[in-house]
Amino acid sequence: MIPSEVLPRPWHTVSADLFKVNNFWYIVIADYYSKFPFVKKLNNLTATTVVNVVRSIFSEQGIPETLICDNGTQFTSAQLQDLAKRYGFRVVTSSLYYPKGPGFIERQVQTVKIKYH
Protein backbone atom coordinates (compact mmCIF):
# COMPACT_ATOMS: atom_id res chain seq x y z
CA MET A 1 0.00 0.00 0.00
CA ILE A 2 1.40 3.35 -1.02
CA PRO A 3 -0.16 6.44 0.49
CA SER A 4 -1.88 8.25 -2.38
CA GLU A 5 -2.92 11.33 -0.45
CA VAL A 6 -0.61 14.13 0.57
CA LEU A 7 0.62 13.31 4.04
CA PRO A 8 -0.21 15.93 6.66
CA ARG A 9 3.10 15.82 8.51
CA PRO A 10 6.42 14.04 8.86
CA TRP A 11 6.35 10.66 10.58
CA HIS A 12 2.63 10.18 9.79
CA THR A 13 3.33 7.07 7.71
CA VAL A 14 6.49 5.01 7.94
CA SER A 15 7.65 1.78 6.38
CA ALA A 16 9.97 -0.90 7.73
CA ASP A 17 12.05 -3.71 6.31
CA LEU A 18 14.89 -6.01 7.31
CA PHE A 19 18.05 -6.46 5.27
CA LYS A 20 21.45 -8.12 5.47
CA VAL A 21 24.84 -6.59 4.68
CA ASN A 22 28.18 -8.32 5.29
CA ASN A 23 26.55 -11.07 7.41
CA PHE A 24 24.85 -8.55 9.70
CA TRP A 25 21.10 -7.91 9.84
CA TYR A 26 19.59 -4.43 10.02
CA ILE A 27 16.17 -2.84 10.20
CA VAL A 28 15.35 0.30 8.26
CA ILE A 29 12.35 2.43 9.15
CA ALA A 30 11.76 5.25 6.68
CA ASP A 31 9.37 8.18 6.73
CA TYR A 32 7.18 8.55 3.63
CA TYR A 33 7.00 12.35 4.06
CA SER A 34 10.70 13.19 4.34
CA LYS A 35 12.09 9.94 2.89
CA PHE A 36 14.55 9.88 5.80
CA PRO A 37 15.66 6.37 6.84
CA PHE A 38 16.54 5.24 10.35
CA VAL A 39 18.80 2.18 10.39
CA LYS A 40 19.64 -0.02 13.37
CA LYS A 41 21.78 -3.15 13.56
CA LEU A 42 20.00 -6.20 14.97
CA ASN A 43 21.51 -8.77 17.33
CA ASN A 44 19.11 -11.40 15.94
CA LEU A 45 15.93 -11.65 13.88
CA THR A 46 13.45 -12.55 16.61
CA ALA A 47 10.18 -10.69 16.79
CA THR A 48 11.11 -9.52 20.28
CA THR A 49 14.33 -7.89 19.06
CA VAL A 50 12.63 -6.25 16.08
CA VAL A 51 9.77 -4.94 18.25
CA ASN A 52 12.23 -3.55 20.80
CA VAL A 53 14.07 -1.65 18.05
CA VAL A 54 10.78 -0.36 16.59
CA ARG A 55 9.76 0.79 20.08
CA SER A 56 13.13 2.51 20.53
CA ILE A 57 12.88 4.40 17.23
CA PHE A 58 9.26 5.38 17.92
CA SER A 59 10.27 6.58 21.39
CA GLU A 60 12.87 8.87 19.79
CA GLN A 61 10.87 10.05 16.77
CA GLY A 62 7.25 9.81 17.88
CA ILE A 63 4.42 7.43 17.12
CA PRO A 64 3.31 7.27 13.48
CA GLU A 65 -0.28 6.79 12.39
CA THR A 66 0.69 3.88 10.12
CA LEU A 67 3.54 1.39 9.86
CA ILE A 68 3.76 -0.33 6.46
CA CYS A 69 5.77 -3.54 6.29
CA ASP A 70 5.97 -6.90 4.59
CA ASN A 71 4.46 -10.15 5.85
CA GLY A 72 7.62 -11.31 7.61
CA THR A 73 7.04 -13.12 10.88
CA GLN A 74 8.63 -10.28 12.86
CA PHE A 75 6.06 -7.83 11.46
CA THR A 76 3.04 -10.11 11.76
CA SER A 77 3.91 -11.19 15.31
CA ALA A 78 1.64 -10.80 18.30
CA GLN A 79 4.35 -8.63 19.91
CA LEU A 80 4.15 -6.01 17.13
CA GLN A 81 0.35 -6.13 17.12
CA ASP A 82 0.38 -5.55 20.90
CA LEU A 83 2.77 -2.61 20.50
CA ALA A 84 0.53 -1.12 17.81
CA LYS A 85 -2.51 -1.45 20.04
CA ARG A 86 -0.77 0.10 23.06
CA TYR A 87 0.80 2.95 21.08
CA GLY A 88 -2.20 3.52 18.81
CA PHE A 89 -0.79 2.99 15.31
CA ARG A 90 -1.94 0.77 12.45
CA VAL A 91 0.19 -1.99 10.97
CA VAL A 92 -0.46 -2.44 7.25
CA THR A 93 1.22 -5.39 5.58
CA SER A 94 1.92 -5.49 1.88
CA SER A 95 0.06 -7.97 -0.25
CA LEU A 96 1.79 -10.74 -2.14
CA TYR A 97 -0.46 -9.79 -5.05
CA TYR A 98 0.50 -6.10 -4.96
CA PRO A 99 4.27 -6.08 -5.47
CA LYS A 100 4.47 -2.30 -5.93
CA GLY A 101 3.33 -1.75 -2.34
CA PRO A 102 6.72 -2.13 -0.66
CA GLY A 103 8.59 -0.30 -3.45
CA PHE A 104 9.35 2.75 -1.32
CA ILE A 105 11.05 0.79 1.45
CA GLU A 106 12.84 -1.49 -1.02
CA ARG A 107 14.40 1.59 -2.65
CA GLN A 108 15.42 2.82 0.82
CA VAL A 109 17.06 -0.55 1.53
CA GLN A 110 19.03 -0.40 -1.72
CA THR A 111 20.21 3.14 -0.93
CA VAL A 112 21.28 2.16 2.58
CA LYS A 113 23.08 -0.96 1.34
CA ILE A 114 25.20 1.22 -0.95
CA LYS A 115 26.25 3.30 2.08
CA TYR A 116 27.17 0.19 4.10
CA HIS A 117 29.41 -1.36 1.43
UniProtKB/TrEMBL annotation:
SUPFAM superfamilies (alphabetical) = Ribonuclease H-like
**PROSITE patterns hit by this protein:** INTEGRASE (PS50994)
Single Gene Ontology BP term?
DNA integration
Q: Which InterPro entries match?
A: Integrase_cat-core, Retrovirus_Pol_polyprotein, RNaseH-like_sf, RNaseH_sf
| UniProt xrefs under Gene3D superfamilies | Ribonuclease H-like superfamily/Ribonuclease H
A GO MF label: nucleic acid binding
Protein name (database record): Transposon Tf2-1 poly
